[in-house]
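Can't paste images in this forum, so I'm doing it all in text. The chain is below; anyone willing to post the predicted structure tokens underneath?
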Amino acid sequence: MSRHAAFVLFLACGIAFHVSHGVEVNVTDSKDKLCLYANLMVNFSVSYETKGNENKTVKMELPNDVTKSASKCDNISSLLKLDFGDGHSFSMNFSMSGKMYQADFITVSFNLSDSSQFPDSLSNETVSVTVKPQITNVGVDTCYSCKSEDVIRADFVNMTLWNVLIQAFVSNGSKSEKITSCKADTPTTPVPPTTHATSTTTAAPVTNSTSTAPPPTTTPTPTLPPPITGNYSIKSGNSTACLLANFGLRIGFKQGEKYQEMNLEPNVTKVSGTCGVNSSELQLTSNTMTVMFTFTNDTAKFRLHALNFTTKMSSGVEFSEGNTNLSLWEAALGSSYMCNKEQNYTITGLLTLYTFNLRVQPFGVAKGVFSTAHECSLDDTSILIPIIVGAALAGLILIVVIAYVIGRRKTYVGYQTL
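Text version of the structure:
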């Protein structure tokens, strides 16, 4: 599913803006202190297929009677999740790194079985879209502001974002008056044309010389030890595990001409996410990176549908890359996917994922343990044995044929001599 979606969002904090139909949300921490504030308005244009095999588009807006119980925040991550209607939701994930924070992902979900919103829908599934917003490098104790429109489109939903004002991390229980503005709101100063001064002073003649540029150097691939295998889980409302994942994880990415790799360290990694009927998410946030895995199912099989990766370089420059159209780690519902051997996956041209001792089950977890595993081809020795036997037989046949040809040739030469 495309990562580009369009949405209308208004978030207000700290300063006065005219809000006509905003939904005000105050999220508090365990000490009942304000940790996230939002005043927002969201409009959706959703297309779906009807029972008459026609496409229909409906327009929706975020109602005032939203439920925020799933929203939460701590020192390094925040989640604004608003449930509304019959199984619909809007959520924004935020993470903090040093003295800056950002919005990592926005996810919207619609329950197509809601006949009041989607009459004559052919599907009864809950469909989701995950997008990467351009809300980055927001200073701590400031509100992010962006009045300019940002239109993003996806396969089945269009939304428009404008008049954004949000504070995802409130440190002292009160909204900030300071603002971090988006680039689109920052006026640009035209660059004056460059004027070359004319000098009457006689200068020494200039001799143009041609030099050969040195050949580009290839940055060697960093050598890292195998990553530590981490055990990660997401629990449902009744405190039982609904998503299980075990793996060692290495990320390789290229920024400019420089290729880098980094291992995920389980002992400093914070786990968050959600479990749904048709979509589940696992977000892992460490001191160096944030990785979001999105799993979907089609009532028969599940798969890794999307992966988004964000890190901040030592220079302070942020690297963010992802793919929302994947078909990895596929297995039948009610089972788990396992691949113990090292695997590497090209997520995009700039991003590579390496896994070690992988086992995941994003749906149908029973009693907090993995179900029977679907093994990857590298682990399945029942496949390798026939391949090895077949290769050996093929080699034996080739040897026999070569010996026969050589024997025939010697016999033919012998006849000629006689």
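The mean pLDDT is 80. The chain is about 10% helix and 45% strand.
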